[in-house]
Design goal:
The protein has 301 residues and is an alpha/beta fold. It has one domain: Aldolase class I (TIM Barrel, Alpha-Beta Barrel), CATH 3.20.20. 30% of the residues lie in helices and 20% in strands. The chain contains eight helices and 16 strands. It has an eight-stranded parallel beta sheet. Strands 5-6-14-11 form a four-stranded antiparallel beta sheet, with no helix packed on it. The protein has a two-stranded antiparallel ribbon with strand order 1-2. α3 links the parallel β8 and β9. The protein is globular and about 50 Å long.
């Protein structure tokens, strides 16, 4: 039984990784879960300089998930290269580094810095606000998606995964723009913008007012977007959004994802991703699936 998948020439031993921002860079989870069991570890977003993130409170529980407005707090690329990459190199898992920035120049600075580091892939978070365009996210304008993808490909030595925002009218338009820009793969979906109000205090719960919603409530939206994108592009998709167990992951694969990413579930169960790997294996045995690739996009009427 073969569980390995190939994404842009990088062979993962199984199709399971963790969603950026939910797993740190693996160190804090390594006490609870075996990182060697994961196909890849996707790090928290890293920028060219340290970011302090948004003011608190910046996390809130909501029906079927959570809102976060952490604001991509991170220690910056220098400390990341010095501390986090060497830590992850101790494990038999692929390393996917999530990259964030406020401008194309900031993204390029990180991509260039990572070019000679021993990582396997880069995931570019284009849900960041583009400061030069008045704060609209890079991922909400197809021209910007194509342009930033082209820039990343110019400087990257590793395969480039573009992480798409669901906060758009047509996800396929963004996916095609990323493909046109030379993206090697796509990650989708990022969080959906939401809001929570404390009715007793009549105030916003998050200091930022809005936050990104994640968790099981967004899963059907993510499955639909993965399916639509699979029909529209010819590059591999890493599906994410409310994957709580192996069944959710298999649903995503049947919709067209080559690999899957477990996010919010890590907060309730630090072994969630490991359990998803085991559950996919059991499903393959149960249905006599010899190769995981046979499930990708296999949904039919």
């Amino acid at each position: 039984m073969n569980m390995s998948v190939n994404i842009a020439g990088v062979e993962w031993k199984n199709p399971v990784t963790v969603a950026s921002g939910t797993f740190g860079s693996g160190a804090e989870y390594s006490e609870f879960t075996d990182l060697n069991k994961l196909g890849a570890v996707t790090t928290k977003g890293v920028a060219n300089v340290p970011w302090t993130g948004n003011p608190t409170p910046r996390v809130a529980e909501v029906y079927g998930g959570m809102l976060n407005a952490v604001g991509l707090q991170n220690p910056g690329i220098d400390l990341f290269c010095e501390r986090d990459i060497p830590f992850l190199k101790n494990y038999d898992t692929k390393i996917v580094v999530n990259v964030c920035g406020h401008s194309t120049e900031e993204y390029v600075a990180v991509v260039e810095r990572l070019a000679d580091e021993p990582i396997d892939m880069m995931e570019i978070n284009i849900s960041c606000p583009n400061v030069k365009e008045g704060g609209i996210a890079f991922g909400q304008d197809p021209k910007a998606v194509e342009a930033i993808t082209k820039e990343m490909k110019k400087y990257a030595k590793q395969p480039v995964i573009m992480k798409l925002s669901p906060n758009v009218t047509d996800i396929t338009e963004m996916a095609k723009a990323a493909e046109a820009g030379g993206a090697d793969a796509l990650s989708l979906i990022n969080t959906i913008t939401g809001m929570k109000i404390d009715i007793h205090r009549q105030k916003f719960v998050l200091a930022n007012k809005t936050g990104g919603m994640s968790g099981p409530a967004i899963h059907p939206v993510a499955v639909r977007m993965v399916y639509q994108t699979y029909q529209a592009v010819n590059i591999p998709i890493i599906g994410m959004g409310g994957i709580m167990n192996a069944n959710d992951a298999i649903e995503m694969i049947l919709a067209g994802a080559t690999a899957v990413s477990v996010g919010t579930a890590n907060f309730t169960d630090p072994r969630a991703a490991e359990k998803v790997v085991d559950g996919i294996e059991q499903y393959m045995k149960q249905y006599n699936v010899a190769d995981i690739k046979d499930l990708v996009g296999a949904v039919h009427e």
